[in-house]
Amino acid sequence: MEKARTPGIDAQRKFWDWHWLNWQERKTLNEWTARRAEVMLDIIRSLRLEQPKFLDLGCGRGWFTARLAELGEATGVDLSPDAIAAARSEYPGIAFLSGNLYEAPLPVEHFDFVVSQEVIAHVEDQNRYVARAADALRPGGYFIVSTGNKFVMDRLGDVGWNVHPPDHIERELGMKGLKKLLRPRFNVLRSRTIIPLGHAGVLRMVNSVKLNAALGLLIPPRQLEALKEKAGLGYQMIVLAQRRA
């Protein structure tokens, strides 16, 4: 099988400009996005850092960077100039940078926290991406990553999502693969999945409406969902790691 061609940086930039221009039609911000954001913020708050410096990699229009700015000093970077222009307009008190994150002039060992929300599966070089995050962090700084769970993504079934155009990179990871990427530079501290989904393969039974309705007579629905998330059956993975000294 011929290996899929990786789109060049200009094609990637064009895709993300289109994505953020059409973010409302694409329902980029939704109840799942909100759930993921709150879980990540809860993890960040639990560390009780005093006025941390945040770097939001792949910040898009800056909505999550603005949430981070409530907790400390935040900087956002994104490949899309259109997204960054919108972010600067909506959040003028926050620093935003447009450019290729592999080449962006980011300070070394400056940040206390690097945030990567739904980005690592969409970059051309995942190892280099993780190294870039590590270099930006002070020793002992934290890296929190969210991304799709390949185990679930491969078993979603027909959920009515639009197929991405070829200029979009999509290289999903499983939990083992994500941790393996992080370990050369980081100690993995916490990991979890959220939002159980999927109706193909084994998930057809796990998420069966009839089965879950029957189980709901014995186990409260939120508790049942939590059990699935703990078992690694959530659509989203969230991992907290700490940069080694």
Q: How would a textbook summarize the main sheet?
A: 7 strands, mixed
Instruction: Give the assembly state of these chains.
Output: single chain
CATH homologous superfamily annotation: Vaccinia Virus protein VP39
Shape: globular
- Estimate the strand proportion: 15-25%
The count of helical stretches stands at 10
The number of distinct β-strands equals 7
What is the fold-level CATH name, i.e. the topology? Rossmann fold
Q: Tell me which CATH architecture applies here.
A: 3-Layer(aba) Sandwich
- The rounded Rg comes to 18 Å
Which structural class best describes the helix and strand composition? alpha/beta
| Uncertain segments | none
The N- and C-terminal alpha carbons lie at a distance of 42 Å
Question: Any descriptors?
Answer:
alpha/beta; Rossmann fold; 37% helix
Structure report:
It contains ten helices and seven strands. The protein has a single domain (9-197, 232-243), classed as Rossmann fold (3-Layer(aba) Sandwich), CATH 3.40.50. A seven-stranded mixed β-sheet has the order 3-2-1-4-5-7-6, with helices on both faces. By secondary structure, the protein is an alpha/beta fold. The radius of gyration is 18 Å and the shape is globular. β2 (73-78), α4 (81-90) and β3 (95-98) form a beta-alpha-beta unit.
Structure summarized in a few sentences:
The chain is an alpha/beta fold and 245 residues long. The chain has a single domain (9-197, 232-243), classed as 3-Layer(aba) Sandwich (Rossmann fold). The chain is built from 10 helices and 7 strands.
